[in-house]
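Design request, tokens follow.
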């Protein structure tokens, strides 16, 4: 078996569809051609819409199409767990390490604020991108945002 590893990572938010089948098929065929590994990972982080019923539909559809997976949900492997919601503690640990090492930061911008920044950039003929507003916020400003009920997202610190 070669070291090539490819994955199909559907979101279980509804019935399996032709677009998903196509993506899975391309990856499955490549894994088979290269004698590699085909991995099935379930992107179930949309808690409001993800269902186990949809996950079962995806798995049954792949099996019906003859696309068995070598690693992943229900099969296991060295990189599990393969449902994203089962990896949250790992992600929290890594996120905290990135924050502690200064490679990431908390962003308190609302969706509306970010939309306004993007629109302003486009109005000026610029390519829209995050403007780094929350990079290097002081503790007083963070406390103010938290008191307002804002919940941070985590951004990687990259050069602008």
């Amino acid at each position: 078996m070669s070291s090539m590893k490819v994955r199909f990572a559907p979101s279980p938010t509804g019935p399996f569809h032709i677009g998903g089948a196509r993506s899975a098929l391309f990856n499955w065929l490549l894994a088979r051609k290269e004698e590699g590994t085909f991995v099935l990972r379930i992107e179930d982080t949309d808690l409001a819409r993800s269902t186990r019923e949809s996950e079962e539909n995806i798995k049954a559809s792949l099996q019906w199409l003859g696309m068995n997976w070598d690693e992943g949900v229900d099969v296991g492997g060295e990189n599990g767990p393969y449902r994203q919601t089962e990896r949250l503690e790992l992600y929290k640990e890594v996120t905290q390490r990135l924050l502690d090492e200064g490679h990431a930061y908390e962003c308190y911008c609302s969706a509306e604020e970010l939309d306004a920044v993007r629109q302003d950039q486009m109005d000026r003929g610029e390519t829209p991108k995050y403007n780094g507003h929350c990079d290097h916020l002081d503790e007083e400003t963070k406390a103010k945002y938290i008191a307002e009920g804002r919940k941070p997202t985590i951004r990687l610190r990259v050069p602008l």
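Comment from the thread starter after seeing the answer: thanks! The helical segments are 18-33, 52-64, 88-100, 111-123, 139-147.
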